[in-house]
Design brief:
Distance between the termini: 24 Å
Protein name: DUF1080 domain-containing protein
Domain 3-keto-alpha-glucoside-1,2-lyase/3-keto-2-hydroxy-glucal hydratase: 13-201
Pfam families: 3keto-disac_hyd (PF06439)
Number of strands: 13
Order of helices and strands: HEEEEEEEHEEEEEE
GO molecular function, one term: hydrolase activity
CATH topology: Jelly Rolls
CATH superfamily: Exo-inulinase, domain 1
Helix content: under 10%
Number of domains: 1
């Protein structure tokens, strides 16, 4: 747990969380709500905020596991370029308790939040561990949930602030084609209890 295999080390993976400390991470507010327990990075979820990597990354494969309480809403942020404005300068893979949801929308678990709905409902019930893979390579973003590729998007298609390529609205005040492609990895505290483990990343 929270360790690399010999093959992963040879490939160039690095651990983002060592299983015992918050070394390499910072917290935007309420740092007491982020702690290490039983080898997991735990968010008690009493308010709102983020834990984020001090390092920044551009092209990479990020892998992690998470387990949330019933009703928990969270997210994995990436390419988050302006720490003072995560909402507009961070892409987010949505984490939410949407196991029973039938129609996938742009805030279902696995979505590229407010940009692309997941292709299928791949999330597991609350209380079970889920596996996430986020791949960023140039303008291409791929999101995999529990072994299923649920989103593949080309950021170069987002040419207008506040608009998706299909003409629907989104929350962003910038066009993603023009946004920086290097940024922090962030974990969201959105008022729900959630645990993370096995956070690892390889740069491409």
């Amino acid at each position: 747990m929270n360790a690399l295999t010999e093959q992963e080390r040879q490939q160039g993976y690095r651990l983002l969380f060592d299983g015992s400390t918050l070394g390499g991470w910072a917290v935007t507010r309420q740092p007491e709500e982020w702690l290490v327990r039983d080898g997991n990075l735990v968010c008690t979820g009493d308010s709102h905020g983020y834990a984020y990597t001090e390092d920044q990354f551009e092209n990479f494969i990020l892998e992690l596991e998470y387990k949330g309480a019933p009703g928990t809403n969270s997210g994995v942020f990436f390419r988050w370029s302006d720490l003072s404005d995560p909402v507009n300068t961070g892409l987010e893979m949505q984490i939410w308790d949407t196991f029973h949801q039938e129609e996938m929308v742009k805030n279902s678990s696995g979505a590229l939040y407010d940009l692309v709905a997941p292709s299928v409902n791949a999330v597991r019930p609350a209380g079970e561990w889920n596996q996430i893979v986020v791949k960023c390579d140039g303008s291409i973003v791929e999101l995999t949930l529990n072994g299923t590729l649920v989103v593949k998007a080309d950021l170069d298609q987002w040419t207008v602030a506040g608009k998706n390529p299909d003409g629907t609205d989104n929350k962003f005040k910038y066009a993603w084609r023009d946004q920086p492609r290097r940024g922090h990895i962030g974990l969201q505290n959105h008022g729900g209890y959630i645990e993370f483990r096995n956070l690892k990343l390889i740069e491409l």
